[in-house]
Amino acid sequence: MLGNEEYMSKVEQAYVEAVSMLEDMSCWEVYESCDELAAYIRRSPSGLDILKIEFFLDRSPEQVLNYIYTNLGDLHNTLNKDIVAEEGILERFDGNSRIRFEVIDPKVPGVAPREILYFGIKMQVSEDVFSLIECSVNNELRPIRHDMIRADIIYALHLCEKLNNQCHVVSIGYADPKGSVPKAIVNFGLRKRVDFYKVFIKEILKNTN
Fold this sequence. Notes:
This protein is an alpha+beta fold. It has helices at residues 4-23, 61-79, 183-188, 190-207; strands spanning 29-33, 38-43, 49-57, 84-94, 97-104, 114-126, 129-136, 149-150, 152-163, 166-176. The radius of gyration is 17 Å and the shape is globular.
């Protein structure tokens, strides 16, 4: 079984890649701009789009990041009960890191269920900057099954920073569902992710102060 050091090495690489993508301001296209958020996409060499979302909240960065770490996955799965067949925490290492798993079954003929197994850790980057970085890992407690495809979260990063006395949140995600699903359909699915964040922003505001 991989140890925490191996997971840390993998997630550090994902963090560097995600931050590098954020710092490169070229090639981003506006996907949506509304009162709640701004969303952007960027074409990757694989043909799969990278999604970036940013928004501002009248909350502290640490408070927002903690809420994201604790609640984002659970809320997403609750809102998608029709396709989330399994989900949970596989392993906890401490209060700041864990491995989660999800099985997504779209119940579409010819489309196998996708399993996601990912390690995530929240960190304080500097005095007013907090982050959550997640990426796919393997773990012998949950081996790859023959009846589903193991999708790959290349990186999923949330950065919360203090900016103009508000919390500026930036999320960037890049994932590959693997298998034979057409890339155009995968990219179209980003629409649901943007809509989810609109709901999630309301939940953050409702449950923090």
